[in-house]
Structure formats: structure tokens, C-alpha cells
Amino acid sequence: MPIFEYQCNTCSHEFEKLVFASDEPDIACPACDSHDVTKKMSAASFMGPSMGTCAADAPKGFS
């Protein structure tokens, strides 16, 4: 159950959404209900032992 980060292209609101494989790909902004949103790039929550156990432990430039 991945959580994705989005930014609304209409009002610039940033939000997270838990997205299931069966969900519709049409995501709406919770602030203005616009469907014009962009998925943001983000660090993984768990990155493995070579980079730490979570994104907060990642070396600079990876968060």
C-alpha cells in the first residue's frame, strides 16, 4: 500500500494519498477538488542498510 505525494497544479496544495492498485488513477486535490495534479518524486521510506534504515537517515542529496 504505497503512499504517494502529489502537488495540485491549480492551487499548489501538496498532499499525500494512499493509493491501492484497484484505485482509480484520477486523483483529486483535497483543497480545491481539481484533478490536475502531479505526482512528486520522493525518497523511499525504507532505503536499506547501506543508506540507513529510513529516508531521514539518507545522505545529503537523497532526501
TrEMBL record:
EC number: 1.2.99.5
Presence of keyword Oxidoreductase: yes
Keywords assigned by UniProt, alphabetized: Oxidoreductase
Top-level lineage group: Bacteria
Domain Putative regulatory protein FmdB zinc ribbon: 1-42
EC primary class: oxidoreductase
InterPro entries: Regulatory_FmdB_Zinc_ribbon (IPR013429)
GO molecular function: oxidoreductase activity
NCBIfam families per UniProt: CxxC_CxxC_SSSS
Name of the protein described by the UniProt record: Putative regulatory protein, FmdB family
UniProt organism field: Desulfotignum phosphitoxidans DSM 13687
